[in-house]
Amino acid sequence: MWRPAVLARKAFSRKFIANQSFNGFQNHTFVLPQVLDKQAIAPLNSAESPFRYYSHWVSTKSCSHEIKRLFSSNPSSDSESVGSEPIKNDKDTAFIDNIEAVSSESNEGSTVFDEIKDNIAAENISDFGENEVVEEELDLEKLESVLSLLQSSGNLDRSIESSLEEIELSLNEEFVVRVLETPYVPGENLISFFKWGLKKPEFSVTKKVVELLVTAVCIEGRNVYALWDLVKEVGEKEKGILSAEILNELIALLSRLGKGKAAFEIFNKFGELDCVPNAHTYYFTIEALCRRSIYDWASTVCEKMLNADMLPGAEKVGKIVSFLCKGNKSKDAHLVYLLAKEKNINLPVSSIKLLISSLCRKDESVRFALEMLEDFPKEERKRAIKSFSYVIQGLCRAKDVTGEKQLRSYCSEDIEDAKNLLLKMIDADPPPGNAVFNTVISALSKSGEMGEAKKLMNVMEGRGLKPDVYTYSVIMSGYTKGGEMDEARKVLDAAKKKHAKLSPVTYHTVIRGYCKLEQYEKAVELLGEMKEYGVQPNADEYNKLIQSLCLKALDWTTAEKLLEEMKENGLHLNAITKGLVRAVKELEHEEVGTNEVLSAA
Q1: PANTHER family from the xrefs (predicted)?
Q2: Mind spelling out the 3-state secondary structure of 236-298?
Q3: What is the distance between the alpha carbons of residues 194 and 185, in angstroms, rounded to a whole number?
Q4: pLDDT-derived band of residue 532, with 50, 70 and 90 as boundaries?
Q5: CA–centroid distance for 234 within its chain
Q6: How many whole angstroms separate alpha carbon 66 and alpha carbon 135?
Q7: What pLDDT is attached to residue 9?
Q8: Cβ(59)–Cβ(128) below 8 Å
Q9: Residue 289 in contact with residue 263, Cβ under 8 Å?
Q10: How far apart are CA 196 and CA 164, in angstroms?
Q11: Contact 565, 531 (CB under 8 A)
Q12: Which residues have C-beta within 8 Å of that of residue 237, sequence separation ≥ 6?
C-alpha cells in the first residue's frame, strides 16, 4: 500500500484549494512541501490569475478524507479512527507543519487547518453538497498487480485472462484508463486485457478508453490486425462509440506498415461503424494504397474525396498529387489541384512541377499543363525552366489526330501555342535556352513553316545564343522535305561557317534530299565534300547511297567506286547490298549481250 503522505500530497496537489466557504484564504499562499516556494507560486495569487478564487474547486471535506488517512495509525486502512497516533516520517511532519503555517497566517477566526480537523472529527464525510464532485478511489494494490501482470505476462505459463480473474477486479473507466496510460505494456497484452474487460458487466466501453487503446497499440506498431478486429467488434456492438480519429490512427499505422488493402477495408467500413470520413481519412487511405501501387483503388478514394469537397493541408494535398502522378493518374491529380486552387490551398512547388511533367506525357492533357503555367508562383518562375520545357515539348510533339497511332501529324494550333509560350519566356521568365528554341524550330520545320523557323533562329541569335548543329540540321531537313535543295544547301554553308565540324547527320539530310530528287551526281559530290571537311561517312551512309544508285539510277559503276572507297576506309558493306550491285551489273551485261545479238542478226 502506498504511504499516507504520498496519497495526501497527491490529494492536495490536485484538489485541495478551498471553495468560497474559506473566506480570506485566497489571500494566502498555499505551498506544497518540497515542490513550490512562495516566490514560485506568487503568480497564482495575483489579481489577474484565474486561480485567485477557488469557487470551482472541491471543498475541504473532500480533502479531509486524505488528511484522515494521513493521521491514521494504520497506513493500509482508511477506516481507522482519527484519534489514534499517526505514523509519520520527517517528510510527513514537514507536510503537516506547512499546512499549519499556512492556516496560521489567516486573519480569520477559524483557520483552514482547524476546519479540516473539524471535518475529520465529524467522520461523516459522505454527505457532500449537490455540486461537489468526489473522485472514485482506485484500488492501487490491484492496479499494481494488474500492471505487473501485463508487463511480465510473457513469462507466465497461464493466460492473461485466467490471471486477471484471480485478482477479482471490479472494473471502471478510471481503472482501465490508468492501465492503458501506463507505458511499457505490450500492445498484445493490452488487447487481451481489453477483451477480458468487455466480458465484465460492470464495465461500460467509452470513446475515451477506445482512443487510449488504439493510441497505445499504434505507438508500439504491432498487432494491428488484432486491434482492428477488436475495434470493429466494439463498433458493431456500440454504435457511435467510434470516431473518425480512431479509425484514422489505424489506417495511418497500416500505411506505415505497407498494408494498403487492410487500410482500404477500414475505409470502406466507415459507414457501417457510423463514422464520417474526414480529410485525413482520405489522405491516409490514398497514401496506404499508393505505397502498395494500388492506384486504381486510390483513384476511387480520390474521387470520393473530391465529391465530399474535403482536402487536408497543403503539404498532404501535394503528396496526394505526387502519389497519383507516379501511378500515371495525372488527370485525377489535376482535379485535386483544381479543387486546392479553388480553396486557396498553395501546393508545394515540387508537386506542381511533377504534375506538369506528368500531364505533358499525354496528348490530351498537355493543355492542362499549359494552363497551370499561368498560376506558377512568380518567385519560382525563374527556376521553372524544366516545367516550361515539358509543356513546349508536349505541344510540339506529333499527335494522333486520326485515331490511328501509326498516322500521327503535327497540330498547327499546338505549335503556334508553343511558339507564343517561347516568346513569353523571352519577355518574362524563365529565359529559354538552346533546347527550347530547337524544340519549336524543329516542330515548325517538320510542319513546313520554314519562314517561321528561320525567324525564330534569328531571334535565337539576337539573344546571344549560338544555333548548334542540331538547329541547322532540322532546318535543312525541313527544306529537303519540301524539295528546296538550294535553300538547304545555303543553310549547310552557313553551318560550316559557324561550326568547325559538322555531324554526319547534317550531311546525310542533304544527301537524302538529292537522292529523292534523283540528283545522284550532287549527292556523290556532297559525299566527297563531306570527307574533305573532316566528317567521315559511316557504313549506313554508303549503304543507302549505293542502294539508291542501283535501284533508281541503275548506276552500278558509281556504286562499285563507292564500294572500293568503303574498303579503303575500313568499312564493310552488308551482303544484301553487295548482291544488289552484282545483280545490276549482270543485268546490264545481259542487256548489252542481247543487244549485240540482235544487232548481229
Answers
A1: MEMBRANE-ASSOCIATED SALT-INDUCIBLE PROTEIN-LIKE (PTHR47939), PENTACOTRIPEPTIDE-REPEAT REGION OF PRORP DOMAIN-CONTAINING PROTEIN (PTHR47939:SF10)
A2: HHCCCCCCHHHHHHHHHHHHHCCCHHHHHHHHHCCCCCCCCCCHHHHHHHHHHHHHCCCHHHH
A3: 13
A4: confident
A5: 32
A6: 12
A7: 37
A8: yes
A9: yes
A10: 8
A11: no
A12: none
Q: How many CB atoms lie within 10 A of CB 555?
A: 18
Q: How far apart are CA 435 and CA 454, in angstroms?
A: 16
Cell reading at 27: 489571500
Q: Are 504 and 541 in contact (CB under 8 A)?
A: yes
Question: CB of 521 within 8 A of CB of 528?
Answer: no
For 380, residues 6+ apart whose C-beta sits below 8 A from its C-beta are: 349
User: CA-CA distance, 330 to 355, in Å (whole number)?
Assistant: 7
Burial of 438 (0-12, 13-18, 19+ CB in 10 A): buried
Q: How far is CA 412 from CA 343, 396, 416, 449, 450, in A?
A: 36, 9, 6, 9, 13
- Integer angstrom CA distances of residue 505 from 238, 469, 476, 482, 586: 77, 9, 11, 18, 33
DSSP string, 366-428: HHHHHHHHHTS-HHHHTT-HHHHHHHHHHHHS-B--SS-TT--B--HHHHHHHHHHHHHHHHS
User: Is residue 359 a contact partner of residue 330, using CB atoms and an 8 Å limit?
Assistant: yes
Rounded Cα distance between 74 and 354, Å, is 73
Residue 236, phi-psi category: left (phi > 0), alpha (psi -120 to 50), beta (remainder): alpha
For 65-97, give the DSSP string: HHHHHHT-SSTT-S-S-TTSPP---HHHHHHHH
pTM over 0.85: no
Nearest to 325 by CA among 364, 377, 282, 290: 290
Mean pLDDT of the chain: 77
Q: How far apart are CA 531 and CA 542, in angstroms?
A: 12
- Are 370 and 355 spatial neighbours (Cβ–Cβ below 8 Å)? no
For the segment 84-104, the average pLDDT, to the nearest whole number, is: 46
Work out the angle at residue 71's Cα, subtended by the Cα atoms of residues 67 and 74, and round it to the nearest 5 degrees: 120
Q: Please name the residues in contact with 592: beta carbons below 8 A apart, sequence gap of 6 or more.
A: none
Query: Residue 488 carries which side chain, given as an amino acid letter?
Result: A
| Cα-Cα-Cα-Cα dihedral sign, residues 506, 507, 510, 515 | negative
* Cα–Cα distance measured from residue 198 to residue 400, given in angstroms and rounded to the nearest whole number: 65
Q: Which helix (H) or strand (E) holds 524?
A: helix 520-532
If you search the block for the grid coordinates 481489453, which residue do you land on? 194
pLDDT in tens, 427-440: 887 889 999 999 99
Tens of pLDDT, residue by residue over 286-314, are 999 999 999 999 999 999 999 999 999 99
Please provide the distance, in angstroms rounded to a whole number, between the alpha carbons at the two ends of the chain: 139
